[in-house]
Amino acid sequence: MKSTFGGKRILVTGGTGSIGAGLVEALLRAKPKQIRIFSRDDSKQFECRSTLPENAPVNFLLGDVRDRDRLFRAMENIEIVFHAAALKHVGACERNPFEAVHTNVIGTQNVIDTALERNVERVVVISTDKAASPTNVMGTTKLLAEKLVLASFFYKGNKKTKLCAVRFGNVLWSRGSVTPLFLSQMKRKEPLTVTDPNMTRFFMTIPQAVSLVLKAAELTEDREVFVLKMPVLKVGELARAILECGIEKEIITKTLPITVTGKRDGDRLHEKLLTEDESLGALETKDMFIIQPNLSFSPAHPAPHRYKGARPAPEGAYASDKQRLLSKEEIKKLLLESWPRL
Q1: Is 308 a catalytic residue?
Q2: Out of 101, 140, 167, 248, which could bridge 134 as a Cys pair, Cβ 3.0 to 4.6 Å?
Q3: What domains appear along the chain, each with residue ranges and CATH number?
């Protein structure tokens, strides 16, 4: 951590969101020279500022990744960029598709272009499992964001900037995820609403997600997609586990009903972190798959690499319905370890 991020000037777009704020907290332990949080919500910035030590080397900049001029100013003298700003709610993106394009696609291109102009050392773009064989607008725009990272090969020239993308699934207790919704429903003594109890999803905690994002930033050689392995659970089991945790935490005295509402627009029953096509020529480590850039190398002649312990990935999709499911007790352990302060 300190060798990569210590003494550096770092920009985090979307730095007041769950992953962005987690990144800032972790990066501060590496003693960077400065962290700039670039986001568009002044209220969230105010809340975030109050959680940081008074002498933390953090500056808050209001701005939107859609505004390339503002990004250019924000990125002056910056060495590392974590791009976490995005429209991430599936339903909202389905109903406002071109707004998703403006932020997730054009915004990402603005980050890439500005980083190249400012000669930034490395850029990490946060993506999602919904980018693998996307079936909704949000996933499609995130896949395009990943492709923009790959396409930088065609025009970056001799710039030193290294770019990569990091793909993972759902993060427990992150803003807009299902766990805060369940907790809110429990506090109101209302039924927990589940779209389909048999849905399977990749899940991990915020610290786990942040740790793997930082690891990808350290490993990048240029234009990879790092696919972070995550445990899998059934949404119905998650709801039952959080109800039991709610009783243990004395939020409720007895279990509440679970109401099945049906799939929403853009939802799918199972998710993929890696497609079968992407597995060809990909590498695997204990924590992740690494999709190497395929614009200059073929699967038959893979790119040379320096990823410690990496081996060729097995051929085939890495899908949530093909992995071992966490038991209810394992889910409860994850929930209780990461339970938010109330």
Answers
A1: no
A2: 140
A3: 2-169+205-229+272-321 (3.40.50.720)
